[in-house]
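Practice set, problem 2.
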Amino acid sequence: MKILISGKGGSGKSTLSALVAKALKDRGFKVLLVDADESNYGLHRLLDISFPVPLLENMGGKPGFKKMTSVTFPQSSAELPFKNGMGIDEFPEDCLAESDGIKLLVIGKIHDFGEGCACPMGALSKMFLPKLALAENEIIIIDAAAGVEHFGRRVDGDCDMIIGVVDPTFESFSLAKQMAGMAEKAGVEIFFVLNKIDDRVRDIMHKNVDRKNVVAEIPHMPSIFMDSLEGKKLKTSCREIEPICRTIEDFKKKSRPFKIPRAPWT
C-alpha cells in the first residue's frame, strides 16, 4: 500500500510521516518512508536514521537523470532504472538507510544556488512509484513536497491513499479544499488530519475542514515540537495516531492489494 502525506510547508507533514511510520512498524508492517520533499532535511533525524545517498545522486544527479531519460538517448528496457513489479529491496543498497525496522529512501535535495528547479525529483517519483509491487505487509509512506505540485505531476494517482495535514492557518484550510478536489479527480481517497489543535482553534478548524473526512486530531504537543525544533529523534508517542493506523488497516482489507510471490525484505 502506498500512502502520500500532503500539506503546506510547516503543517507537520514530516513529523506525522515519522509518527505514522513508527506506529505501523509497531503493528507488524514493513515500512519504507520516502522523503520526497526536496527542501526539507529533517525527516531522517526525526527517526534517528542515517541520511542515505539520494536516489537522484545515485543516478548521476540531474545531468545523469536527464541523459538516462532523454528521448535523444533512448535506452533499452534493460538499461532503464526501474522495471515493472520491482520490489523495495531492489533499490540501490546505498540509497536505503534503516533504523529500528523502518527504511528510508530520499529522492533528492536542492543543494546549491542556481542549480535549477526540483522537476527531476518529481519526475523520478512518478517514474518508480507505479512500478513498485509490494508484499502483503509492506507499506510505503511518501512525505511529499509542500503544496500541490505533486498533484500536477499525477504522483498522487499512483498512490492508494492521501493523508492531508491541516494546521491552524487559513492557508492550510484553503489548501485542504484544493487537495480534496484534486484527489477526487485523481480517483484517490483522501483523509485529513487536524494538527496542532487546541481549545483556541478547534471550532475554527472544524468549521473550515469537512469533518466527515477527518480521521484524527493531533493536539499541540510541546515535547514533539521541541524534538522537531532541535532536530532530535522523536521520543514521545502519540495515541492520537491510532485512528490513522486503523483507517489504513481497514483500507488495506477493503482494497485487497495484489500479493506478489515473494517474501518482504528481512
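Problem 2, part (b): a different protein.
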Amino acid sequence: MDKKFEGIYSNGKKLFTQNLVCGAKVYGEKLVVDAGTEYREWNPFKSKYCAAIANGLKTNIFGKDSVVLYLGSAEGTTVSHVSDLVGSKGVIFCVDLSEIAMQKLNALAKIRENIFPILSDAQKIDNYSEYLDEGVDVLFQDVSQRNQTEIFLKNAVFLKKGSFGALSLKTKSISQSKGKKQILEEETAKLEDVFTIEQIVNLEPFEKEHYLILVRKK
C-alpha cells in the first residue's frame, strides 16, 4: 500500500483506510491485509469525500484525534471511514434527521466507539450545541436541501478558526433551472465572508451535479 494522505492508502487503483475494528465490515466493502495490517476498501461511488480524493483533493481534512461535526451522516458509510481516520481518540458527532438512518448509525456506534449519533435537523443547532461547546476541528456536510449552504454557515460557529471544512454541494437540490456552474459560483460566494476557499472538486463521474468545496475558516 502507498500512503496518499495520513490514514488513506492506495494500491494504485483503489483507495483504502486502515480498519479501526479489525475484521468488521460496514457496507460490504472488501477487506485487504497487507504486511500484517488490515485495510478497508473505500468506494468513491458510495462516498462523496472519497470521490473528491479520487478526483484530486489536495488536503485530507480528517486527521488523527480530530473532533468532527458531520452533518448528513445517513447510515454511516463515509462516517465509518472517517472513524478509521480520526482513530480511537477522535470523535465524530453525526447529525441526521432520518430515524431509519439513525438506527443503523446507532448500531455502528456500538462497534465504533468514536461515533456519536445525534437525531436532529442540522438547521436547529441549539439541539446539539451543548456537545460542541469546545468547538470542532472539522466540519463536513452532505445534506440534500435547497438551503444547504446556509446550513453549513450556521454550523460554522462550532468550527475553530483556521480549521478545515468541506461542503458537498448538490446543485440540483438548489435549483432545477439554473446551470450547475452558475449555482456553484453563487453558493461559493456566500461562503467567502466566513471561509477561504481552498479548492473546488467536481465529483463526476462518481456523483452527477455535485462538487466538494474545501474551505478554511477565517
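Answer key, part (b): The chain has one domain: 47-217. The mean pLDDT is 95.
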